[in-house]
Each structure stands twice: as C-alpha cells, then as structure tokens.
Amino acid sequence: MAATSALFVLDIKGRCLISRDYRGNVSTAEVERFFSKHLEKEGDMESHGPICYDNGVSYVFIQHSNVYILAASRQNSNAATLLVFLHRVVHVLKHYFEKLEEESLKDNFVVVYELLDEIMDFGYPQYTEAKILSEFIKTDAYRMEASQKPPMAVTNAVSWRSEGILYRTNEVFLDVVEKVNLLVNSNGQIIRSEVNGALKMQTRLSGMPECKLGLNDRVLMESQNQSSRVKAIDLEDIKFHQCVRLARFENDRTISFIPPDGTFDLMTYRLSTQVKPLVWVEARIERHSRSRVEMLVKARSQFKERSTATSVMIELPLPPDATSPTVKTSIGYAKYAPEKDALLWTIKSFPGNKEFLLKAEFKLPSVLSEDAVDRKAPICVKFEIPYFTVSGMQIRYLKIIEKSGYQALPWVRYITIAGDYELRLS
C-alpha cells in the first residue's frame, strides 16, 4: 500500500488533540481546515462517508465516542486497508485506557505518542497487536522495573506471538458460533435470512506451535473426492485473522497458522442461503369488547428432536396502554414489561420439534379505538442451541505440531444463537 502521511486524533469539533507526522507533507492546519468544512456539511448526505479527497490530500477517518481518528495521505493509498488500520488503532488504545475518549487521551498523551511511533513507521503499518505492544510500552499500572528490551515478537516474522510461552497443560478451545438473522413479514414470508459465523479460539499452548485446521468446505472436499461422504458447505465473505497463511489457503484450502496466545477470532464467514426458521411464533389477537383483548401465541421449534434450545426469550408487543395482563403458559413463565410495552415469555429449555402455547388477556382504556390494539412492532426472539450449527459446519480435524513434541488437547464446541430475529404480526 502507499504510505500514509500522518495520523491525527481530533475532538468532536475537529480540533487536533494529537498528531503524528510520518512524512512531513500534510500539516495540522490543513487537516483542521478540511475537517471543519466537513463538519459544516454534515447535513449533506454525500459528505457522510469516511473517505474524502480535498486539495490533493486523501482523508480516511472513523469516529469513536467523542473523538475522530484520521489518516491523511498525499499518495493513492488503499482506503480499505487504512480503515482496518484505524479500527486496529482504536482497539489498541482501548486495550490501554479501557475507554477511548478525549479525557483519557489527554491524561495519557505520552503513552499515545509512544504507541503511534510503534504502530506505524514512515507511513507504513507495523505492530497492531495490543498484547505484544503492552510488553514493552507500559502505562503506570504496568511499568517495568528492570531495563526493557523489545519482545521477540517485534523482531520476529510472527508479530502476534511472543517466544518463550510455557503452559503446564497445553490446550486449544475452539467454538463454532453461528448467529441467525431472520425477518418474516406478516404473511409468513421470509424477507431476510442470513447466517454469520465465527471460529473463536482460545489457545494455551507452549512454544511456537503450528496448527492445521480442516473444514467441510465444498471446494476442499471436491478436490479430495470426499464430497459424497461428508456434507459440504459453501462459505462466503471469509475473513481470517492475520496469523493464517493466505497463500496456503488459496492454494489447497488448508487453514495453517501459528496462533496468538489467548483468545482471538480465527475466521468469520457468512451464508446467505435461505434457512428454515428455527423457532416459529404465531400470534392471534381477539377483541372481546372495546376494553378486553385476548392474545393467543403458538411457539414451535423447527429443528431436530435431538437438539434443545436454551435461554429462549420471546418478546410479544402489547398496546402501550395495556393494563392488568393475566397470562397462562404451557411451559416457562411470562412477565409483563411496561417499559418495553411487551410481554416477555421465557422458556429455559425448548426441545426440538415441540410446540407450546401462551394465552394472555389484558385490558385497555375504553376511550381508545380498536385501532389502538394494532401495534406494528414485531415479535423478537432470542435463543441458543448448543451442539448445533445451521450451516452444517464441521471441524474435520485440528492438528497441533510443536518442535518439542508435546501432546495438546483440542476441544471443539458448536452453538447457534439468534441475532436480529424478528417476526411481524399479521
């Protein structure tokens, strides 16, 4: 990528709080002048983007809390790379100060300048791993007593992992987490269906281990002539942690990496294929008089019997002036939440292929018309299904190789959770 000229931290009014000039060709005055003009045009929809060009300078910025983090360049830089880098800067600063805002930056400006010197050199991104940076750039709480030297990770090709890590028991925990986003209209038609997945790892491994991970990826399975024996899936929008060797993956679809120590997201992916709703909810409203209304709700699990959903919460919208609801449920319990104008139906354990009922009766002020009952707010559902994935994602193998020859224990867990899961009332 082309080099970045300078990094700036601006307050909410566009005034420079902290700046780091890497190439000497963009001044603070230019940036403040540009940004004040940009803020004046906030009402203009075309000026809302995070990438702007003005007077020969490209500006890329993001907002966090009450500050802006901005990169300026006179060269044709890769805007997407700069946006990722700015988010990494925010991550590093939050790691140090917990809250990234104007006051915390002013209180720790010396540390901020030290960090800006390390994360970018002459306009090129360098080290953005907060754990590695915290080994040699210390705040008051982590000040080193002995003379410090840069950790090996800084001078290493593996910048995300330090050498000399030692554990008594070597373990790897891998969670396959899939989040289901669903929107169903009042006619029962699926408007939006999406699955966002992530492979979340926690490593407790000694030394510099080499890990290899195999998935039931269709491209890999077909290349190995195994697609008929194992269910294969099509992955879209795959994003890897920087530790993954991308050239190796593009060549033979093998996920090979030296992992960071601790917790990280190895990979995220998306599936846009339409999935069958896992929990289906139907609600029918009956008006017995102008002041008495009855709601009949049917919740049905549409996954296999061997799976069980836990922590199920169904939020049923009620009219804002509903009073004295009486509720009967065939399972779980329901609670009226007036602050949400909703009835919250909680089911701790919801087995697959089961159906449960809720009957609620509530009163309305008689002065209201019948139209007051017709609320357009959707039914919202939250749930978790352990040992289950919507996509059929499977970890075929996880190999850990280290030159000392120790045996590591890999633990794999699958879970599906509800994201934006809404069903509109008919």
UniProtKB/TrEMBL annotation:
The keyword Membrane applies. GO terms for cellular component: clathrin adaptor complex; clathrin-coated vesicle membrane. Pfam families: Adap_comp_sub, Clat_adaptor_s. The keyword Transmembrane helix does not apply. GO terms for biological process: intracellular protein transport; vesicle-mediated transport. Adaptor protein complex 1 (AP-1) is a heterotetramer composed of two large adaptins (gamma-type subunit and beta-type subunit), a medium adaptin (mu-type subunit) and a small adaptin (sigma-type subunit). This is MHD domain-containing protein.
